[in-house]
Amino acid sequence: MTIKSLVALLFCLGYSFLYLAQTTSVEGRIFDGETGEPLPFVTVSFKGTNEGTTSDIDGRYALRTNERVGRIHISFLGYLSQTIQIQKEVNQTLDIALEPKRIELAVAEVRPEKKRKNPAKPLMQRVADAKKLNNPKNIPWSSHK
After folding, report:
1. CA 101, CA 81: separation in Å to the nearest integer?
2. What is the DSSP string of the chain?
């Protein structure tokens, strides 16, 4: 083996190790913080990138990138979103508990305006007054008896 081929081989090996060392990998499980049930279809992405995934039916996810990222973002409808710091260029396992989002609703009270007349009231009165006339039993050509 010549010196040139040995240097080329070492360069290729060094470059491949350098390339592998720069991979950031995050995997784990996402579950409901109150019940412990797995959460399927939760969005997990590297913050500031377009790289992301969703959790499977058992709440498991795996995400990998060669970019230098420092955070992952987790979001799911009905739960509080989280942004978690991760270690760069390391394979790591993170199990994440999402807390349900609480929404407080104020009481709504509907009251009719005293001064304004209900436009449906005259129509409903006419329907009630014509009830006997519209009875199919009172119509001579009706087959209902």
Report:
1. 9
2. --HHHHHHHHHHHHHHHHHHHT-EEEEEEEEETTT--B-TT-EEEETTSS-EEE--TTSEEEEEESS---EEEEE-TTB--EEEE--TT-EEE--EEEPBPP-----------SSSPPTHHHHHHHHHHTTTTT-GGGSTT-S--
Tell me the mean pLDDT per 10 residues along the chain, length 145: 66 56 88 95 93 96 91 95 92 95 86 78 88 78 56
Residue numbers of the domain that contains 37: 1-140
Q: In this structure, is residue 145 part of a structural domain?
A: no
Q: Does the residue 99 lie in any domain?
A: yes
User: What is the domain-level CATH number for residue 50?
Assistant: 2.60.40.1120
DSSP strand pairing (24-32 vs 96-98): parallel
- Quick check: is 9 in a domain? yes
**Torsion angle of alpha carbons 20, 22, 23, 26, nearest 10°?**
140
Based on the structure, what is the number of domains in the chain?
Answer: 1
